[in-house]
Amino acid sequence: MSIKNVRIEVMHFLEKNIDSFVENYLIPVEKIWQPSDMLPDSRKENFYEELKELREIAKDLPYDFWVVLVGDTITEEALPTYESWLMDVEGIEQVEEGPGNGWSKWVRHWTGEENRHGDLLNKYLYLSGRVNMREIEMTTQHLINDGFDIGTDRDPYKNFVYTSFQELATYISHNRVAQLAKKYGDNKLSKMCKLIAGDEMRHHMAYSEFVDRIFKVDPSEMMLAFQHMMKLKITMPAHFLRESGDAKGNAFEQFSDSAQRIGVYTALDYVDILRKLIDKWQIDKINGLTAEAEKARDFLMKLPDRMTRISERIIIPEESHIFKWVQPALVK
């Protein structure tokens, strides 16, 4: 049987438990928070007082903080790209009946939860009055137009390694933004980002559970997929980020510099996520590997220390790039 057919069989095997995945890792629509729960209610007479308070507190947030918050928002708003990519993974079908339909249920419900993140952050940015919304909207449209290539092709094993890693990375980013917002006195924004981070952690736990179950039934191929993704390096979903008038990807490095300068997401965080996944999946204890997969395991076990040494040599520019989204004059 071909590697592709084995993967599809494994996906069908996992699909039998899809309802329990949805029940354990996602929250029903009527019970989960919605963006309007976190923002001033335009139906109430005190709307303008609450809006004024939101805008006053927002004035104290520094430049790099705004850059990171905008970048995180744009990343969340590019959700159509991520859903369409996952829907094309082998073993996931959009048909109403038959194998694969359970996975499409998972992807749609996951997308429904993720969709609230961009909605909330976008509304907050608009109400804050501290950013250029038109520039942000153009960057978002460009990012969706440009799509992305995360190096997984249609391989479910590689895609689940990617989502396991990326959901934990977004948890770290949103959680750190929440901590910084609280430090600067914006408790409401801190709560917003904390709630988003909570969603991301649940999603990480789900995708990492998918990988863990694959390791139990197809350990060698799962090990090789893990090695492939780490050799390739995990590409952030906004790696094609650009401002209006710029070439594809021109803004991503400067956005990453801002995130590293204020400690929201750093090269050492990348290494820490890798260590966590190695521990979570107990890579050192997996049995029954082929010779090739054993070599892959050896590579993975040594990789965190190698990457730590590289990360410690990275120099981040002290000067902030001036983004069209957040000119310093708007922040003052």
UniProtKB/TrEMBL annotation:
Cofactor info, note text: Binds 2 iron ions per subunit.
GO MF terms, alphabetically ordered: metal ion binding; stearoyl-[ACP] desaturase activity
The UniProt record lists the keyword Iron: yes
Keywords: Fatty acid biosynthesis, Fatty acid metabolism, Iron, Lipid biosynthesis, Lipid metabolism, Metal-binding, Oxidoreductase
Binding site for Fe cation 2: E114, E167, E200, H203
InterPro entries referenced in this protein's UniProt entry, alphabetically: Fatty_acid_desaturase-2, Ferritin-like_SF, RNR-like
GO biological process: fatty acid biosynthetic process
Pfam families associated with the record: FA_desaturase_2
Residues the entry annotates as binding Fe cation 1: E76, E114, H117, E200
Cofactor: Fe cation; Fe(2+)
Domain of life from the UniProt record: Bacteria
Quaternary structure annotation from Swiss-Prot or TrEMBL: Homodimer.
Membership in a protein family: Belongs to the fatty acid desaturase type 2 family.
PANTHER family: ACYL- ACYL-CARRIER-PROTEIN DESATURASE-RELATED, STEAROYL-[ACYL-CARRIER-PROTEIN] 9-DESATURASE 7, CHLOROPLASTIC
Protein name (Swiss-Prot/TrEMBL): Acyl-(Acyl-carrier-protein) desaturase
Phylogenetic lineage: Bacteria, Pseudomonadati, Bacteroidota, Flavobacteriia, Flavobacteriales
